[in-house]
C-alpha cells in the first residue's frame, strides 16, 4: 500500500480514507457517471447513499447551505401528491424525474401523470435523506403518504413497491415499516398481517427468505428484523427463535460477511448482517478485526469509495454500507448509525424531535377541539386497521 498504515495497540491497521470517501460521495450528488445511467430510475436512493455517507463521515458541512437546499428541493421535486377522485392512493416519492414533464400542453401533462406514482424504496430513502439534511418534513402530507403505503399492502401482508404492481417481498416490507416509523403514523397499514408474513418467511435453517419458501438471505433477514423492530413487534419472537436466527447470522462471517451459505463475502453484508445482529444485540459475538480487514481490502485508495470485492469497481451503495459496517465496530471518526433505519443516530434523533412536536400539536388540537389535518392523524397503534385497502395482485 502506498499510504501509511496506523498502528493501534500494536496492530497494523489501514486507515479509513475519510476525506477521499467524502469527495466520492459529493461526486455522486453532482453527476451520475455514464456507466450508472441505467440507475437513473433509482437516483433518489443514490442521493440517499451520498448524503447519508457524508453524515456518517461527519462531513455534511462540506456541502454548502445552498447545495443542501438544492438537494432538498430536488427530492421534493419527486413527490407525487395529487390524487384523482376515485383512484387508489399513489402518493410517495419517485426515484427519477424523467416523467416530470415541463409543458403548457395539458394533454401531455395528463398523459405524464399516468406514469407518476410513489415507490416505497424511493419514499423511504427520500424521507431519510430529508431527515438527514434537517428538513422539518412540513411539506409532507403524512396521511396521504401512509395511505400510499397501505394501498400497496398485499393480502398475504407483504408489500409491493408501487401501485402499478411490482414484486412483493421482504424488501418492501422493510421500506413500508421504515416509512411509517419515520412519519410516526401507521394509518391503514395492517401490522398484524405484516408480522404474519415476516414470520412465515423464517426458513428451516433459521434465516429469513424474501417470500414464502425462498432461500434464507442476509439482506432479507435484515429487512425482516428491522421491520419487526420498527413496528414494535420484535418482542413477539420467542427466545429460542431469536437464538437460532443469531446463529444463522453469525455463521455468515467468513472474514467479512456473505449473504448466503457458500456465497462469496461482500462488503454490503458487513451492514446487512451487522445491523441484523445489532438489532438482536449479538454483534459483539463477531470478529471485528477480520471484518474490518476485509472491508479495508475493498477500499479504493486512489479515488475513495468501497466496492463489493477487492479490486472491483466502487459504487455509492457499497461505499455507504461499508462505512456503516465500520461504524458498528466503533471506527474512530465515524458517526453512530441506527441499525434498523440505516441512517445516523443524529438524523434519527432529529426525527424523534419532530415526532414529539407532531404529538404536541395533535394534543393541542384536541384541547382546542378543532379538526386540522394534523389532528386527524393518530400515531396510536389502534389506528392499525384490519381493513386495509389492499390492491389485487397484478
Ligand atoms: Zn453487495
From TrEMBL:
Enzyme Commission number: 2.5.1.59
Residue ranges of coiled coil: none
Cofactor(s) this protein cannot do without: Zn(2+); Mg(2+)
Pfam families: Prenyltrans
Reaction catalysed by this enzyme: geranylgeranyl diphosphate + L-cysteinyl-[protein] = S-geranylgeranyl-L-cysteinyl-[protein] + diphosphate
InterPro entries: GGTase_I_beta, PGGT1B-like, Prenyltrans, Terpenoid_cyclase/PrenylTrfase
Prenyltransferase alpha-alpha toroid domain sequence ranges: 18-343
Record bears the keyword Metal-binding: yes
Stored CDD domains: GGTase-I
Assigned GO CC terms: CAAX-protein geranylgeranyltransferase complex
GO molecular-function term, one example from the UniProt record: metal ion binding
Enzyme superclass (EC): transferase
SUPFAM superfamilies to which the protein is assigned, alphabetical: Terpenoid cyclases/Protein prenyltransferases
Keywords carried by this UniProt record: Magnesium, Metal-binding, Prenyltransferase, Repeat, Transferase, Zinc
Disordered, as annotated region: 362-394
Sequence similarity: Belongs to the protein prenyltransferase subunit beta family.
Subunit-level organization: Heterodimer of FNTA and PGGT1B. PGGT1B mediates interaction with substrate peptides.
PANTHER family named in the record: GERANYLGERANYL TRANSFERASE TYPE BETA SUBUNIT, GERANYLGERANYL TRANSFERASE TYPE-1 SUBUNIT BETA
The protein's name in its UniProt record: Geranylgeranyl transferase type-1 subunit beta
Name of the gene encoding the protein in the UniProt record: PGTB1
Amino acid at each position: 500500500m502506498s499510504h501509511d498504515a496506523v498502528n493501534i495497540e500494536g496492530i497494523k491497521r489501514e486507515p479509513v480514507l475519510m476525506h477521499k470517501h467524502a469527495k466520492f460521495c459529493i461526486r455522486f450528488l453532482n453527476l451520475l457517471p455514464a456507466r450508472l445511467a441505467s440507475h437513473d430510475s433509482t437516483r433518489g436512493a443514490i442521493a440517499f447513499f451520498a448524503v447519508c455517507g457524508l453524515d456518517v463521515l461527519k462531513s455534511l458541512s462540506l456541502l454548502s447551505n445552498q447545495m443542501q437546499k438544492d438537494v432538498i428541493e430536488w427530492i421534493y421535486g419527486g413527490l407525487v401528491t395529487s390524487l384523482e377522485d376515485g383512484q387508489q392512493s399513489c402518493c410517495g416519492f419517485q426515484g427519477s424525474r424523467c416523467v416530470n414533464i415541463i409543458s403548457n400542453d395539458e394533454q401531455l401533462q395528463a398523459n405524464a401523470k399516468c406514469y407518476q406514482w410513489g415507490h416505497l424504496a424511493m419514499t423511504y430513502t427520500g424521507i431519510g435523506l430529508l431527515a438527514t439534511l434537517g428538513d422539518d418534513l412540513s411539506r409532507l402530507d403524512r396521511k396521504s403518504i401512509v395511505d400510499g403505503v397501505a394501498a400497496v399492502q398485499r393480502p398475504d401482508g407483504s408489500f409491493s413497491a408501487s401501485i402499478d404492481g411490482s414484486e412483493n417481498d421482504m424488501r418492501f416490507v422493510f421500506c413500508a415499516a421504515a416509512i411509517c416509523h419515520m412519519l410516526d403514523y401507521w394509518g391503514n397499514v395492517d401490522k398484524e398481517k405484516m408480522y404474519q408474513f415476516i414470520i412465515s418467511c423464517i426458513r428451516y435453517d433459521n434465516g429469513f427468505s424474501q417470500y414464502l419458501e425462498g432461500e434464507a438471505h442476509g439482506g432479507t433477514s435484515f429487512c425482516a428484523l428491522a421491520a419487526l423492530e420498527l413496528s414494535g413487534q420484535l418482542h413477539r419472537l420467542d427466545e429460542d427463535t431469536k437464538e437460532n436466527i443469531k446463529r444463522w447470522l453469525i455463521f455468515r462471517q467468513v472474514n467479512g460477511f456473505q449473504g448466503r451459505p457458500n456465497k462469496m463475502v461482500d462488503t454490503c453484508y458487513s451492514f446487512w448482517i451487522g445491523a441484523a445482529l445489532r438489532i438482536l444485540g449479538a454483534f459483539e459475538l463477531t470478529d471485528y478485526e477480520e471484518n474490518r480487514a476485509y472491508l479495508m481490502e475493498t477500499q479504493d485508495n486512489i479515488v475513495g469509495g468501497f466496492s463489493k470485492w477487492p479490486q472491483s469497481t466502487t459504487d455509492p451503495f457499497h461505499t455507504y454500507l461499508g462505512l456503516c459496517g465500520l461504524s458498528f465496530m466503533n471506527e474512530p471518526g465515524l458517526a453512530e448509525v441506527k441499525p434498523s433505519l440505516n441512517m445516523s443516530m443524529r438524523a434519527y434523533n432529529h426525527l424523534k424531535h419532530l415526532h414529539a412536536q407532531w404529538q404536541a400539536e395533535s394534543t393541542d388540537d384536541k384541547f382546542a377541539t378543532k379538526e386540522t389535518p394534523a389532528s386527524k392523524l393518530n400515531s396510536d397503534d389502534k389506528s392499525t386497521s384490519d381493513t386495509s385497502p389492499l390492491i389485487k395482485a397484478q
